[in-house]
Design a protein that fits this description.
Largest sheet: 3 strands, antiparallel
Structural class: alpha+beta
Distance between the termini: 32 Å
């Protein structure tokens, strides 16, 4: 918390100290709000929707039979929900699952898993 002793030790008058404390109390909460909104925060994934389509035929190949994944993340950024959508092949989806499993394992080792 704010200490008047620091001001007194540095030669501030009582009138200046009182004004500073008054402004400090008045603007503390708005400053905290501004500072918290200007920092960097990773977005939080709050929901996932996905579907798998089977690509049977393409322009260049007669027969393909490969899965294609459509993923939609609902993400909270600074309290505002947004959506991130992308498509992935089977190998990209396997990479994503492996990365998420590694992240989960790292959190469990740190004892931060909720």
């Amino acid at each position: 918390m704010l200490s008047r002793n620091i001001f007194e030790e540095n030669g501030f008058s009582q009138d200046r100290i009182s004004k500073f404390v008054e402004y400090y109390i008045e603007y503390l909460q708005p400053l905290k709000t501004i500072i918290s909104s200007t920092g960097f925060h990773f977005p939080h994934i709050t929901d996932v929707e996905w579907r798998m389509d089977l690509l049977l035929k393409s322009d260049s190949l007669e027969k393909e039979n490969t899965p294609l994944f459509f993923i939609k993340f609902k993400v909270m950024e600074y309290g505002i929900p947004t959506y991130k959508e992308f498509t992935a092949t089977l190998s990209q989806m396997q990479d994503l699952v492996n990365i998420l499993q590694d992240a989960t394992s790292a959190l469990e080792r740190l004892d931060l898993f909720i």
